[in-house]
Amino acid sequence: MVDMALDYWHKPGPITAIGRSYWEATLVKAAAFLGDVPPAGNAADDAQRHALARMPVVQIRINDDWGAAAEPQPRFAPFVS
User: What does DSSP assign to residue 79?
Assistant: First the structure.
């Protein structure tokens, strides 16, 4: 998956001290972070999980027991299509 993302997002850039381009290093960090999310969710209590779930959204509209729409926080808007 990271390889596909690297192919899609690859932009030539300066080589860092570890020999990777900026985008490759950023994707590796993002993949490592996302790998830590499930264990963190399992270790969190209900209040912590709810706080994390509310962080990226301003509001969620529910229609017949399912999420009909979500309004993202402005800082998260670029990541939502």
Answer: G
Residue partners of 10: CB distance under 8 A and separation at least 6:
21, 23, 24
Dihedral, CA of residue 50, residue 57, residue 26 and residue 12, to nearest 10? 170
CB atoms closer than 10 angstroms to residue 25: 16
Dihedral in degrees, nearest 10, Cα atoms 18, 19, 24, 30 = -10
pTM for the structure as a whole: 0.40
List pLDDT tens digits, range 26-36. 888 888 888 88
CB-based contact 53:40 (threshold 8 Å): no
